[in-house]
Design a protein that fits this description.
Mean pLDDT: 93
Radius of gyration: 19 Å
Helix content: 25-40%
Number of helices: 8
Low-confidence stretches: none
Distance between the termini: 24 Å
Length: 304
């Protein structure tokens, strides 16, 4: 089998290329029937282009996306719909929310022998205005906070959590709610809303888990809508939302299940797609079942 390590040299704030090269050299010495290549990305969309071009050749290839959720997302976009390609996250980035879904076994995705001895499993991807999403897409208050964190992380006293707090304060002053029209099957809503998370996976935003039992292979999207909510009520209940207990608060949260949802805004809005920013006044999210091969490391029982 041929393995391609797609390395994002700026993921997690440091270049892991040599570390990954050393690991690969050591492991593949004992695998004479396998070969590998390391490709270091050159620009933000390079990973998707490289995987897509390789996929079009028809070569059977296992991709290890060495970076964070953004790198994994780009590799998924290149691999979607190609049966000759399988992808695994190799989480050396910042958030690594896709891997959180696997609980105590998530570190198997950093275990190179386990990945090389693994298998493949078909998972779903959600198309967000044409950009595939492996885990969660969101719009609203939390999307604006998460996407704008980078505006503050270079400021004094704003490293790490400080940047998130700065973004939270700024977006709160701008107002938590916006106007939206939502269509999802027989459900429709027009009016003020705070946020909405469309879940193929379970985690986003560095550990928020809106739906505890969301599955990336069940052919359905779990959609959590938060209508207009006061600032005190938001902060009082955000912990329950983070822990997947939104269903216990129907006065604030609406939980829908569908394979398609549409959002329309009065003005251009930011959409968080696996931590990457998209923009638009209308957002079409469509689930594609069994759209991509995920590499499952040996010992991972999540899909059993």
């Amino acid at each position: 089998m041929k393995y391609l390590f797609i390395v994002n040299p700026i993921a997690g704030g440091s270049d892991h290329t040599e570390q990954i090269r050393t690991m690969a050299e050591k492991e593949f010495k004992n695998r004479p029937n396998d070969e590998y290549e390391i490709y270091v990305t050159k620009d933000p969309f390079d990973a998707a282009r490289e995987v897509s071009e390789r996929a079009e050749t028809g070569e059977n290839l296992y991709i290890l996306a060495c970076g964070g959720d953004g790198t994994f997302n780009l590799c998924c976009n290149g691999a979607a719909g190609h049966d000759n390609i399988a992808v695994a996250p190799f989480p050396v980035g910042t958030g690594n929310d896709f891997c959180r879904m696997f609980g105590e076994q998530k570190d198997l995705y950093l275990n190179l022998p386990a990945l090389l001895d693994g298998s493949t499993h078909k998972i779903d991807l959600a198309s967000v205005n044409g950009r595939y999403c492996a885990c969660i897409a969101s719009v609203g208050f939390d999307a604006r906070i998460g996407i704008n964190v980078h505006k503050y992380d270079k400021l004094p006293l704003c490293k790490g959590p400080g940047a998130y707090i700065a973004s939270l304060v700024v977006e709160t002053f701008k107002g938590m709610t916006r106007s939206v029209s939502i269509t999802c099957g027989d459900f429709s809503y027009s009016g003020p809303y705070t946020l909405c998370a469309v879940c193929n996976g379970r985690y986003y935003g560095g550990g928020f888990n809106p739906v505890r039992d969301a599955l990336p292979d069940d052919g359905i999207l779990d959609i959590v809508l938060v209508k207009k909510i006061s600032l005190p009520a938001f902060f009082l209940n955000v912990g329950k939302y983070k822990k997947g207990r939104a269903d216990s608060l129907p006065q604030y949260f609406t939980h829908l299940k569908s394979d398609h949802v549409t959002f329309e805004f009065d003005e251009e809005s930011v959409i968080n797609c696996d931590g990457e920013a998209l923009y638009g006044k209308k957002v079409e999210i469509q689930l594609y079942h069994n759209c991509m091969n995920l590499i499952v490391p040996k010992g991972l029982t999540f899909f059993s």
